[in-house]
Structure prediction request, 470 residues.
Amino acid sequence: MAYQAPTFFRRGPSPLARLAFFSLLSLLLLFSDARFSYLDNLRQVAAVLLYPLQRLAGAPGAVIEDVGEFFSSHARLESENTRLKQQNLDNAAALLRLQTLVAENAHLRQLLELHPRFEAPGIAAEIMYEARDPFTRRVVIDKGSQHGIKPGQPVMDEIGVIGQVTRVFAWAAEVRLLTDKDHVTPVQVVRNGLRAVVFGIGEEGTLDMRYMPNNADIQEGDVLVTSGIDGVYPSGLPIATVTRIEHDPAYAFARIHCTPRTGVSNYAHVMVLGERKLPENPALEVEVAPVKHKKPRKGSP
Amino acid sequence: MMPASSNAIMMTVKGGFIAFSLFAALILNMLPWSGFWLMLRPDFLALAVVYWCVYHPGRLGFGAMWALGLVMDVSDATLFGQHALAYIVLLYLVIHLHRRILMFGIKHQVAHLFGMLLVMQLIMLLVRKVAGADFPGVDYFMPSVTGALLWPLICRILQWPERRRPEPV
Prediction:
C-alpha cells in the first residue's frame, strides 16, 4: 500500500488551474454578451446596485460646479440674462410664425390625406458622464426606466440630434451618439431633399456619408437633417453639415465627410424625445386589396 | 519616499482596510473623467489589487478579482467579461511574479508594473478587436504609463496604516 505524505498546507487548485477556470468563465460571458443578449437582466441589477456609487463619484464635481456658480460674477449673469431675454424675443417671433405654419401644414396634410407628422413630448435629462471606454462614443444620462425612458428613443439638445437611447437602467440610461462606430442615421439634404445615410466612424466631430454616387447633387456646406424614414428619429431635425467631398474616379462612390452639429463636450442637458409610433405596415393593405377586387368579378357573370 | 522593501517589518493589515481601499479605487475609477484626463486615467482598481497581491499575497483570490472585473464592466458599459478576463490574467501575473517584484528597487518595480498593466490592456484590446472595434491609437496605452508612474505613490498611501509606530522609549 503506497503511503502518501500529507501536505503541509492546504492550497486548493493551483493558480494556473484557477486562471484557466476564470478565463473560460469570462470568455463564456463575453461570447454570450456579444452574440446574444442573455445578460441584460444581470446588467440591470448590477447597474441599480452601482447607481449610488456613481452618484457619489459625481458628487465632488457637482459641488465644485455649484461653488463656481455661486461665485460667478454678477455682471456675467446680467449680460447672460439680457442675451437670453433677447433670444427669447427672437424665439417668440419664430414660435408665433411656427404656430401658424403648423396649423397651415396640418390643414394642407388633411387636404392631401397624408399622415400627420410625428410630434412627441420630451423628457429633459442631464448627462452624468461619458462612457469610460475609448472604443465607444456613448454617454450616460440621469433618467431611466423609472422616468419612462425606453430603448430606441431619440435624444437631442437645442442644436440637433445627438443619438439614441440604447440601454435603459432604473435611474440611468445609456445614449449611443451619432458618432459611435457604425451608427447609421438616415438623412436628407435640406437644399434638394436628396436622401442618404450617414455613418459614425467612432471619432468625435466626424461623420461619413457613404454609398452616394460620384455625380450625386451634394455640395460642401449642405445641411443634413433626419429624413425620418428609419422609424427612430423624427424627420427634420438637424444632424450635420457637409464639410469635404472627395471624388475619386477609381471608386463608384464619393467620399463625403460631414461635421455633426453637436458634440458631447458642448452640452450638459439633453432632451429625450418620446417613442415614435409608426403607421401600420402598408404590406397588409396590399394583401387585402386583390381579394376585394376579386369579389365583384365572381358575382358579375 | 521608498516603499517598504520585503524585509521591513509590517503590521498585519485588516480586511476592512483592504475592502475600503478597493472601494475608494472603484470610486476613483468612476469619477466623471473626460477628454484628455480620461485618456490618462490609470485603472486605480487594478493598481490597488496589484499592491495587495504583491505585499499581502493570499488576501485577494481569483473569485473576488473576477467579481471586481464584472463591476467595472457594468460601470464602463463594456462587454461583460472584458475587464474580468483582463483582471484575472493580471492577478495570475502578479501571483507568479510577486516575490521577484519585491526583490527589486522602486524603479524596477515601476518597470514591472508597466509590463503587467500593458498585458492587461492588450487583453482588453484583443477582446474589443474580436468584437469588431478598430484600434483606437497608441494613446490607448497611456493609462499603463500613468499607472506605473503612480505605483510609488500608491504604495506609500496603502502602507501608511500598517507602518509600525515607533516604540516609546
In short: The interface with chain A takes residues 26-27, 29-35, 38-39, 41, 61-63, 65-66, 69-71, 74-82, 84-85, 88-89, 91-92, 95-96, 127-128, 131, 133-134, 136, 139-140 of chain B (CB under 8 Å). The first helix of chain B runs from residue 15 to 30. Confidence is low (pLDDT under 50) at residues 1-7 of chain B. Residues 59 and 67 of chain B are 15 Å apart (CA to CA).
